Amino acid sequence: MPEPDPSTSSGHRLERAILDLLDRRAPKTICPSDVAREVGTADGWRALMQPVRDAAQRLVQRGEVEVTQKGEVVDLPTVKGPVRIRRPER
């Protein structure tokens, strides 16, 4: 599935879904799959995993979220394995 353009409703919708889910679960972290399951269908959420990660990266670039692995902030484009998304620690 191609990356949603952030200027489209799909890209914006995923970014908004990440932020909304973080607000509801504050101060906890979320998994990209939590967002994909919330936005996608029961059978189709896996196809949203990369678009959710792409949306998270756009939010990282704007300073709105951090991506962590084992509690440490990581570079999403280069990290392998499961990650979590959180609001930046202040």
The percentage of residues in β strands lies in 5-15%
What is the CATH superfamily label? Winged helix-like DNA-binding domain superfamily/Winged helix DNA-binding domain
CATH architecture: Orthogonal Bundle
Number of strands: 3
Query: Given the structure, what is the number of helices?
Result: 3
Q: In the residues, how many domains can be counted?
A: 1
Mean pLDDT: 91
Please mark out the parts with pLDDT under 50 across 5 or more consecutive residues, or reply none.
1-7
Structural class computed from helices and strand pairing: mainly alpha
The percent range for helix content is: 40-55%
**Taking Cα atoms only, what radius of gyration do you get, to the nearest Å?**
12 Å
Global morphology:
globular
For the record, the CATH class is Mainly Alpha
InterPro entries: DUF3253, WH-like_DNA-bd_sf, WH_DNA-bd_sf
Protein name: DUF3253 domain-containing protein
Description:
This is DUF3253 domain-containing protein. It comes from Nocardioides anomalus. This protein has 90 residues and is mainly alpha-helical. The protein has one domain (9-86): Arc Repressor Mutant, subunit A, CATH 1.10.10. Helix content is 42%, strand content 10%. Strands 2-1-3 form a 3-stranded antiparallel beta sheet, with helices on one face. Helix 1 packs across helix 2 and helix 1 packs across helix 3 (49-61). The model is unreliable at 1-7 (pLDDT under 50).
